[in-house]
Write a structure and sequence with these properties.
By secondary structure, this protein is an all-alpha fold. About 60% of the residues lie in helices and about 0% in strands. It comes from Fodinibius roseus.
Amino acid sequence: MDIKMIPETNISYASYLDELQIMLAEARIVSSHQAITGEANRKENRTDHNSELKPVVGRVVVYMEEHLTEQLSLEKLADEVQLSKYQLIRRFREETGVTPWKFLIAKRINRVKEFLKDGIPPNQAAVEAGFYDQSHLTKTFREEMGCTPREYQEKYFKNRN
């Protein structure tokens, strides 16, 4: 059995896929069941040719993780993997089921939730997680979670000490 490796790394495609699925589940982009069974990467008409796309998406995910607090643009992400922004969106969606922007927002929301758990105020959590300001965080957080960051913090972490 020939193990395919990601070029210029010591990581196998299988290991990479496992890590990507775990990150997607943690970001609540796919369910834990999908991450365990690998359903998020399955499509009926997928061919072996698409296995070449995985390192590109992986590099973008790693870049986002490393630069989460920076103001990232689609153009910057596309330049990082030498694709047009439209090619990047298409490939990223094929691999993860969401756009790069949706993935980035989910990662930032998860970071904010960690800060809120640690007792950090929402205005500071917003800046630390890469949002423009507290207003941007509040709007995005409400859309994703159904409540404001302050309400979330008070509901889940107020009485912990």
